[in-house]
Amino acid sequence: MRAVVYRQTGPSSVLEVVDREVPEPGPGEVRVRLLRAGVNPTDWKFRAGMMSGYDEVTPGQDGAGVVDAVGPGAEGFVVGDRVWVLLAQHGRAHGTAAEQVVLPTTRVVHLPAGASYDVGAALGVPAVTAHRALTSGEDVDRLAPGALAGRTVLVAGGAGAVGNAAIQLARWAGATVVTTVSSAEKAALATAAGAHHTVNYRVGDPAAEVRAVAPDGVDLVVEVAPAQNNDLDRAVARVRGTIAIYANNGGDEFSIPVRETFSKNLRYQFVLLYTLGEDLLRAATEDITAALTDGAFAVGEEAGVPLHHLPLEETAAAHDAVEAGTVGKVLLRIAEE
């Protein structure tokens, strides 16, 4: 099979396409013939030097395809099942930038009929992260239609991958969704994703605009850049609101004014996909699959997620595109059905 590998960390030039033996699934594992693979910021960050410990790494956490082999005791799957996968390379050497991947069944999820392989490959990192952020609020641990009814969610950076996923999932769950953006073009994408209100944080008074929508404050903030946005988040969060932080865009540190923060009984929830645990991952994949089944999660320009397809041989270019901040979702087109 063809696979993309690197043997040392560094720039995207360390990636190369090689031929490798087709892996066989062991107990509790299935093999997936991949049609699409998602490319996320975590992929280029690991490749650039955040991860080591293997002689050879195939990058990629997310993908979608068809089960083509089932190992002993791997229940719930048969050859031919359409699936999406997550955390494929977490704690393992080989991820989804390959024609086939072997994974434990806990990292493989049935793809509902009608859901494309494009959307399946775009789920993992963005959608599971968004799910955890959205279930960090008071008395909310699962998403379903009506689960966030009566609540207002502020999504920072609604045109990003996690931001887009948070908008779609929050709207499906019944929330009023406000998002901050940096341009009219990104506002259009966030609106296409389902945001009820967009606020350009580069002009005017963004806190006042958010407060105009939620006079008592927003229930939950899904935050990508806390070092830049904590003052805004604190200003617009309601008493006993939650600020869920999943990234460090714009800076690695921020300070919290203690009295102003505890006077509102605010909760800060930090979110990292890789340490969620099996219970939270299972809750996320079940709820995301329900949203897919309801037709409430999509990709493409019409859903605010422009798609950028590259062949497996251009994985280095795909990494560079994500690192450069390409708006939308970068996917590897590995094969056709």
TrEMBL record:
Q: Pfam families recorded for this chain?
A: ADH_N (PF08240), ADH_zinc_N (PF00107)
Q: Which domain of life is it from?
A: Bacteria
Q: Which UniProt keywords apply?
A: NADP
Q: Identify a single GO molecular function assigned to this protein.
A: oxidoreductase activity
InterPro entries for this protein: ADH-like_C, ADH-like_N, ER, GroES-like_sf, NAD(P)-bd_dom_sf, Zinc-ADH_QOR/CCCR
Q: Where are the transmembrane segments?
A: none
Q: Which Gene3D superfamilies match?
A: Medium-chain alcohol dehydrogenases, catalytic domain, NAD(P)-binding Rossmann-like Domain
Q: Which residue numbers delimit the Enoyl reductase (ER) domain?
A: 10-332
Keyword Cell wall biogenesis/degradation tagged:
no
Q: What is this protein called?
A: Zinc-binding dehydrogenase
| Classification lineage | Bacteria, Bacillati, Actinomycetota, Actinomycetes, Propionibacteriales
